[in-house]
UniProtKB/TrEMBL annotation:
Family stated for the protein in its record: Belongs to the SIMIBI class G3E GTPase family. ArgK/MeaB subfamily.
Species this chain originates from: Thalassospira povalilytica
Protein name: Methylmalonyl Co-A mutase-associated GTPase MeaB
Source domain of life: Bacteria
Pfam family of the protein (one): MeaB
Record-annotated AAA+ ATPase domain positions: 75-248
Length: 352
């Protein structure tokens, strides 16, 4: 593989303008695998960037890296965390993460930032919102753009989880953009799904979708220190709602608890419940079954993504796609007719 050496212009004292591209040596597959296994944060970040890349040239190496690291994955607690806007997810994750690192755990945080539908950019500001955790030697924060994917999940979040596990992280926290039906995607790739809510249950129950409560393993009413009476009422309301919903497992009844990330109250209880859930799921054989389903879901997600990518990059499809988009926008063609024409190209190819 051709290597590009990182160079620093003479006379700069090592300070390079951020506008000037810094060329780095391309790492071999062996270097990436060995670096991730050694827990090298810089190489882990580069491995994640590699698997997130849509560049076809990077795909083959990314798959080779993942294949080599797969035997070293699966040892973490995978925890999904979501919540309504303003609930304090970042504050919670920082306090929760510091509790875990203080107990000797290595914690990875995969914080997905929403990608702008207009500009295609994202803020990626999670490290600035988790100042203390970001400098903790036993923590790793990886902000990634959601790239428009439902549930605020980057297209390669599953692969990123595996890379973090191979790097030796005991707990992987996946923070999502916000509560909604599409958060089922997060629940499908984690072992435990935590929903953070605010006091004021009446308004919140009207605003949250039923699907999120159905997949929650635990609801935590955050900021309970601000108004304990409202927090207790919210806890009762959520407990009542959970009792009438069908749980995801017959062996685990989701509950609601009161916490305050700001004063670090109740976070140990959440960790105890996560461990209780893990013990129950392993005892009943559901943990292994769920991990197997995660692999299956990963396969189907990748298949759909790769099929769409391969199809739209075909010369005959690409040449018609932009014209059909223009026709749909102008109203001269309806979406169904446009899709049928494109699918007709597959049928024509198959007959040929």
């Amino acid at each position: 593989m051709k290597e590009t050496l990182r160079t620093i212009p003479a006379g700069t004292g090592g300070n390079i303008s951020p506008r000037k591209a810094v060329r780095r040596r391309v790492l071999s597959t062996d270097e990436l695998v060995d670096g991730v296994r050694a827990g090298d944060r810089t190489i882990l970040s580069r491995a994640i960037t590699l698997v997130e890349s849509r560049n076809p040239k990077h795909f083959e190496q990314a798959q080779a890296v993942l294949a080599r690291l797969m035997p070293h994955t699966g040892g973490s607690q995978r925890i999904g965390i979501t919540g309504v806007p303003g609930v304090g997810k970042s504050t919670f994750i920082e306090a929760f993460g510091k509790n875990l690192t203080g107990a000797g755990k290595k914690v990875a945080v995969l914080a997905v930032d929403p990608t702008s539908a207009r500009s295609g950019g994202s803020i990626l500001g999670d490290k600035t919102r988790m100042n203390e955790l970001s400098i903790d030697p036993n923590a790793y924060i990886r902000p990634s753009p959601s790239s428009g994917y439902l549930g605020g999940v980057n297209r390669m979040t599953r692969e990123t989880i595996l890379l973090c596990e191979a790097a030796g992280f005991d707990v992987v926290l996946v923070e999502t953009v916000g509560a909604g039906q599409s958060e089922t995607m997060v629940a499908q790739m984690t072992d435990f799904f935590l929903v953070l809510m605010l006091p004021g249950a009446g308004d919140e129950l009207q605003g949250i979708k039923k699907g999120v409560l159905e997949i929650a393993d635990l609801i935590a009413v955050n900021k309970s220190d601000a108004d304990p009476a409202k927090a207790r009422e919210a806890k009762r309301e959520y407990s009542s709602a959970l009792r009438i919903l069908q749980p995801t497992s017959k062996h685990w009844r989701p509950q609601s608890v009161m916490v305050s990330a700001l004063i670090n109250d109740g976070l140990d209880t959440i960790w105890d419940l996560i461990n209780q859930h893990r013990a129950v799921m392993e005892k009943e054989g559901e943990f292994t079954a769920k991990r197997a389903r995660q692999q299956r879901d990963w396969m189907w997600t990748m298949l759909r993504d790769r099929l769409l990518e391969t199809f739209t990059h075909r010369d005959d499809v690409a040449s018609r796609l932009s014209a059909l988009e223009a026709d749909v926008l102008s109203g001269t063609t309806n979406p169904t007719a446009a899709v049928e024409e494109l699918l007709g190209l597959i049928k024509t190819t198959g007959q040929a």
